[in-house]
Amino acid sequence: MIYVVTLTHPPELCLAREEFAAEFMRWYEGMNDLARKCNITVLGSYTCPNEHVFYFILEAIDYKSITGFFSGVMLTNHTGRISPVITLKESVDIINQGN
Questions:
Q1: DSSP H stretches of helix in the chain
Q2: Helix and strand totals (H; E) in the chain
Q3: Span 43-88, pLDDT tens digits
Q4: C-alpha distances in angstroms, 31 versus 36, 39, 66, 73, 88?
Q5: Distance, CA of 83 to chain centre
Q6: How far, in whole angstroms, is CA 43 from its chain's centroid?
Q7: Burial of 24 (0-12, 13-18, 19+ CB in 10 A)
Q8: Residue ranges of domains in the chain
Q9: Are 67 and 74 in contact (CB under 8 A)?
């Protein structure tokens, strides 16, 4: 299943701050290994620094895998929204099945 993950943090918990930067860099540099360990494919990872928001598009077997992927400052410094999504075509197919 595909998930769109939105992680938001306040400026005082920004990962660019000196007290969080080293831990964030460790997470970032190990992100691909962690994704493999959690059986996740990272389809996209984005940020809007001015809004203090990260966006991830992940393919995962289940929600539990995703919670394991976001650890350390990625978990403790953010409020998250994890949304399972389907393609527009899949949605149209569901609509057509009902007709």
A1: 18-29, 31-37, 63-69, 73-76, 88-97
A2: 5, 4
A3: 999 999 999 999 999 999 998 899 899 988 898 899 999 999 999 9
A4: 9, 12, 12, 13, 29
A5: 10
A6: 10
A7: middle
A8: 2-97
A9: no
**pLDDT category of residue 99 using cuts at 50, 70 and 90:** low
Burial of 75: CB neighbours in 10 Å, binned 0-12, 13-18, 19+: middle
Q: Write down the CATH number for the domain with range 2-97.
A: 3.30.70.1290
Cα separation values, 87 from 2, 20, 38, Å: 9, 36, 23
Tokens of 44: 């996209």
Neighbours of 27 (CB within 10 A): 18
